[in-house]
Amino acid sequence: MTGLRYVYAICRPFPAALSAELTGVAGAPARQVLHEDLVAVVGTVPEKDFAVEPLRGRLRDPEWVGETALAHECVVDALTTVTSPLPVRLATVLRDDAAVRLMMQEGHDRFVRALDRIDGRVEWRVRIYAETGGPAAFEGAGPDLAGFSGATAEGRVPANAEEYARQLHDDLSRRAEGACLHPPRNVELSGKSGTNVLDAAYLVPRMKSEEFVERVRRAQHEESGLRVEFTGPWAAYAFTGESTFAGELAWPACDTTVHHV
């Protein structure tokens, strides 16, 4: 099969067949590449667009990156309905099926450890926004709050915001098997109003997701001046590495990798 291999995720073998209508990056249908007890879900993409040099150029185009990320996520989301996929970083492109199998062979133990951790689990993302007042620093915000609240840069937030965010995060963490704090969102870039005082991901067993979601929904009505938003269930993007650092993927690089961003 000519063309390069765009890799979406690593999974354990699953019985459900991928829909012939499931297409991803470059409009290519997704398919499985089996190696021992692992499966890679890939698509075949044209070398003229995805070899090293042309891909580098395309990665400087925000519109193309956005479209590619959406197509990538669509395939991973479809996999989440039938298995617990281990998403691979955006724009991971290998030479051919043999290179895909080599990646699974060389990274086998890491992949298996990560799959063990996320098996039967999904990711929920929770964000809290506080309506801000005038341009004043958040009272009590110190170095220990770095990465937890964005309040210091965007104005005064309700005095209860930081403490409520901590309490809710602690409560949700107890209901999850893993939790990961993300840096505050830039509301100007995201188009949201207010100040982002919590942005966190939680790894939750599928069977306990209903209970988890119910707790978040209660939180949406508990504090005035605060807005609680949540999304999911997603594949466990924030929990795919050997640590739970958000977005960090540390799979071993293969000599046959064309590009791995």
From TrEMBL:
Family: Belongs to the gas vesicle GvpF/GvpL family.
Statement: the UniProt record of this protein carries the keyword Ribosomal protein: no
Main location class: other
Lineage: Bacteria, Bacillati, Actinomycetota, Actinomycetes, Kitasatosporales
Protein name: GvpL/GvpF family gas vesicle protein
Coiled-coil intervals: none
Protein localization: Gas vesicle
InterPro entries in the record: GvpL/GvpF
Annotated keywords: Gas vesicle
Provenance organism: Streptomyces siamensis
